[in-house]
Amino acid sequence: FSGSCQGRCFELKEAEPPSCRCDNLCKTYLSCCSDFDQQCLKTAGGFECSQQRCGETRNEDYACQCSDDCDSSWLEGDCEEIQSPECPAGFVRPPLIILSLDGFRASYMKKGKSVLPNIHKLSSCGTHAPRMRPMYPSKTFPNLYTLATGLYPESHGIVCNSMYDPMFKAHFKLRGREKLNHRWWGGQPIWITAEKQGVKAGTFFWPWPYVYAVHSEQPDTYGHLLGPLSNEPFERTLTVCVLGQLDNTLKKIDNIVGQLMNGLKQMNLHRCVNVMLVGDHGMEESHCERTEYLGSYGLDVDAITLIPGSSGRIGPKTATTPYNPKEIVANLTCKMPNQHFKPYLKQHLPKRLHYANNGRIEDTIFLGFGPSFNFKTKVPVFENIELYNVMCDLLGLTPAPNNGTHGSLNDVLRNPSYTPTQPEEVTSPTPLAPPSEVTHDLSCNCDDEVSDTHTHTHTRVFSKVNVTHLPFGRPAVLFQTSYTQLCQSDYCSGFSHAINMPLWTEFTLTAQVEVAAVSSSECVRADPRLDLTHTCNTYSQEPGVTHTFLYPPDFSVTAESRYDASLITNTVPMYPAFKNCNAVVVCVRRAAGSVYIPTHFYSIISSCEELNDTLDECEGDLRVTCFILPHRADNSESCNIWEDESRWVEDLLKLHTARVRDVELLTGLDFYRSTALPYTRVLALKTHMRTFEDDV
Questions:
Q1: How open is the CA angle 315-316-322, to the nearest 5 degrees?
Q2: How far apart are CA 126 and CA 118, in angstroms?
């Protein structure tokens, strides 16, 4: 390569060979001009302040300047609680520095002070989470832009490091100029939000910006090269490559963090600036023996394009290539005894991944340190879509629309500026008319309900039902519709007049009950409280669909409560294969012919965090487990369905674990309206996802 970086430092243009490059990725692609370090990084003076350099005359050719007290290290001091920002005159607000570390696996923090002394101090003295969950796919570009916008990749459009857009008829790649085209980038990143509201962003030299984002490509590069758990040199063919241990790379990163904190201390800004240290994604080990070759599955590999990796994607080779995604998924499903991957159509991916609504379509760390973050505080695991709102709060900005839940991370801040409130209910339940006689045949199959003159009027009143079965209040409906709240002795439901099935069903189990996998009674009764337009045999009009009870009649112990549980208003349409899984659920709906067939069912299970306390006795926190299950005509997602359900149903449930907030976004409902918990804690519960990692 030839040329110089003089006057070209960090240019956006990527020079083509034989010219050398001066952009910020030239180091990655080993194409920098020979004077890049001198001209752009200004490495001549080094990056360490020794006692001999303290108080030196400022040299503009040095990137690192040293103050009079530079021999005093930030690391050597004790944790200091900063009650309020201490900023120099002229600062309107505490600046925010965001450091992003590529591929920083959460478990690296276990290396402690010996490898990461500066990062360990930030974690110990500030606010941290044991892990932060990245978005799917766990790639750099999708997650960096999610951190910046608070949007899912399906919402902001950067769904992978490389992708094809069928509307643009263009490819987005890390190498090439197309990635600089604004048409790919949806949403509003934090630096644009800041600039639109008059806050300086993105500059480095004085005057100090109020938001500055820095990204390091380490330890991702060495993690890919050596493996995330590697700490040994490795052998490649016949040459032993002593590339240094991964720990050495982590030490270098930590040293850079230490240099930043020392620099802030020397400028008397260490009690003023807020620092946020995050990873874009984690990293897992891969093994050669787990490599899969699609040709061995009978695919014509010359007719497809494969984007490989832990979240590989398959597409047609060209726009004219014959391509049937359903056929490809069928050919790749459960074909090998030790298959190391599971194929999905994107609409069948677990809903928690939020990766279906775009045509392009390992945990990491969070540390917060500074006057606006809480002192020595640990918060639960959360998803990185929540950080955009936190950054806006730190900078006094109004967030742009995003997928985060504003206020759910208030616990990380010393004095949160935003106070969340419950959304207003849009539709209240319509009053229940007096029960009437059933004077017409609903084609129900119970012996005492096939006549035209059944006179059961269902006049019982349950004054304590709401307290027992709606301990957190009635779920609010946040869209225009019509429904009635129906309460029985053992359960309550919100029955929709628009789709003739419940929007939700709630009940409380006070003790362990042994029940059959499928209800022993298939008797369906008419409900005299409603003038229904559908009959008991409506679902039989749809091939392959039957009915099931949301509240299982076998949970009831009295004749009257079993009668309630057999009402037609307690039924939903369901595929028999799904019915065998015996999930207690409510539906997410879509139209299919004359009957609404659910695309998914969900289950939200609430219990007291104290395992021996019932909900009535619970005075502390809640434990919430949530699932969103795809409603499919078969169980081909599991490869061992020929075994007893106890061997595979639980694994299937865990695969589709989700957040309560995911259910709310899909259904238009709002849960936990009446609890003794602060509302910010309720939001934290809604955005928490149980992953069962601690159950092993």
A1: 135
A2: 12
**Nearest alpha carbon to residue 462 among 567, 572, 566, 564:** 564
Rounded to 5 degrees, what angle do the CA atoms 116, 119, 120 make? 75
State pLDDT tens for residues 461-470.
444 455 678 8
Helix axes 140-149, 387-395, angle to 10 degrees: 40
Residue type at position 145: Y
Report the distance separating Cα 1 and Cα 493, nearest Å. Answer: 71
Which tens digits make up the pLDDT trace of 421-477?
A: 999 999 999 988 776 665 555 566 565 443 333 334 444 444 445 567 888 999 999
Structure tokens, 580: 């065998």
Summarised one tens digit per residue, pLDDT across range 61-100 is 887 777 776 767 899 889 999 999 999 888 889 999 998 8
CA end-to-end span of the chain? 54
- Please give the structure tokens belonging to residue 100: 């992003």
Q: Which of 317, 279, 501, 276 is nearest to 409 (CA)?
A: 276
Q: Cα(146)–Cα(657) distance, rounded to whole angstroms?
A: 21
- pLDDT over threshold 50, residue 420: yes
Reported CATH class of domain 447-695: alpha beta
**Helices (H) then strands (E): counts for the chain:** 15, 25
Spatial contact of 500 and 533, defined as CB atoms under 8 Å apart: yes
Give per-residue burial for 380-389: e unless 16+ CB within 10 Å, then b. ebbbbbbbbb
Half-sphere exposure for 391 (CA within 13 Å, toward CB): 37
422-458 in b/e form (b: 16+ CB < 10 A) is eeeeebeeeeeeeeeebeeebebebeebeeeebeeeb
> Where would I find the H helices in 548-675?
559-565, 576-579, 649-655, 660-667
CATH architecture of 90-285+362-412: 3-Layer(aba) Sandwich (3.40)
Strands 377-378 and 127-133: parallel
Asked if the bond preceding 543 is cis, omega within 30° of 0, the reply is no
Q: Domain coordinates of the chain in residue numbers?
A: 90-285+362-412, 293-339, 447-695
* pLDDT for res 310: 64
Q: Which residues are catalytic?
A: 140
- 130, 378 contact by CB (below 8 A): yes
C-alpha span between 137 and 146 (Å, rounded): 11
